[in-house]
Amino acid sequence: MDKQKIAELGEELHRALRSQSSLAPLTERESDITVEDAYYISQHFVRQRVEVDGEKIVGKKIGVTSAPVQEMLGVFQPDFGFLTDAMHYEDGAEIPIEGNLIAPRAEGEIAFRLKSDLVGPGITEQDVLNATESIMPCFEIVDSRIRDWKIKIEDTVADNASCGVYTLGDNEVSPHDVDLPNIAMKVFKNGELHSEGVGSAVQGNPLTAVAWLANTLGEFGIEFKAGEVILSGSLVPLIPVVAGDCMLLELEGVGTASCSFI
Questions:
Q1: Which of 119, 229, 236, 238 could be joined to 223 by an S-S link, Cβ 3.0–4.6 Å?
Q2: C-beta separation of 262 from 241 below 8 A
């Protein structure tokens, strides 16, 4: 795909974000689009958020890592994207939907806060562990600029991994103090238990997912920087949310995260 087409699609996604409108799937319109093309579209899209909107990149994310999420979306390999400061809401925040989100879905995740840089490829799970200052519970509220969530991997990568917004729990612990593959999560919607998961739902180990992301982005010359937050993927199925819904998750041995929608 040529640079002009990449720029056009990136700007189209940016306009959809700002107008809270949705687009026909890119994979229906560009039959030869590749994941690499999609990544460069995403970069142009995110560049608009930085250069035009004044946002700052504060982290990265991996998504579509667990079998339940893959089956729900019909996408069977991970996606990857960038987090900006404008996406972050405080723990317990009321998150507006109108004028902010199109078709939000909540994911319960483990977030990593880095204390040192990670530059792939060649990053191992031990490298991730050594570079991580702390982990915390997280709600990522994914959203799609692609109409009706009719996405293939190229659509979601181009759409910055369907990033919406996210909240981080206030309590942080050392990753050395928990058994990440076996750590348990419970997610509650409107006071009722909705779903449960464990860390191994994310590529067998959240450390594996973060290492994969560091190596994948490293191939494009993108490094993880000290201080960044890395979202490692959902332990539970996606949960559609609407105004009035309240979400709470409990991450065993770590703490809670919560948000509500207005």
A1: 119
A2: no
Count of helix runs (H) and strand runs (E) in the chain: 7, 13
CATH architecture of 3-261: Alpha-Beta Complex (3.90)
Query: Where does the pLDDT of residue 72 fall: very low under 50, low under 70, confident under 90, or very high at 90 and above?
Result: low
The number of angstroms, rounded, from the C-alpha of 255 to the middle of its chain's C-alpha atoms is 20
Distance CA 35, CA 170 (A): 35
CA distances from 67 to 144, 178, 198, 233 (A): 19, 23, 12, 11
Distance between CA atoms of residues 192 and 187, nearest Å? 8
pTM of the model: 0.93
One-letter identity of residue 199: G
Angle subtended by helix axes 35-51 and 3-19, to nearest 10: 60
**pLDDT above 90 (res 74):** no
**Residue in 139, 106, 86 with CA at minimum distance from that of residue 242:** 106
In the three-class reduction of DSSP (H, G, I as helix; E, B as strand; rest coil), residue 22 is classed as coil
Q: What is the dihedral of CA 147, 150, 155, 160, to 10 degrees?
A: 60
> String of b and e for 33-63 (b: at least 16 CB within 10 Å)?
beeebbbbbbbbbbbbbeeeeebebbbbbbb
Letter for the amino acid at 156? T
**What's the pLDDT band for 75 if we cut at 50, 70, 90?**
low
Domain boundaries, the chain: 3-261
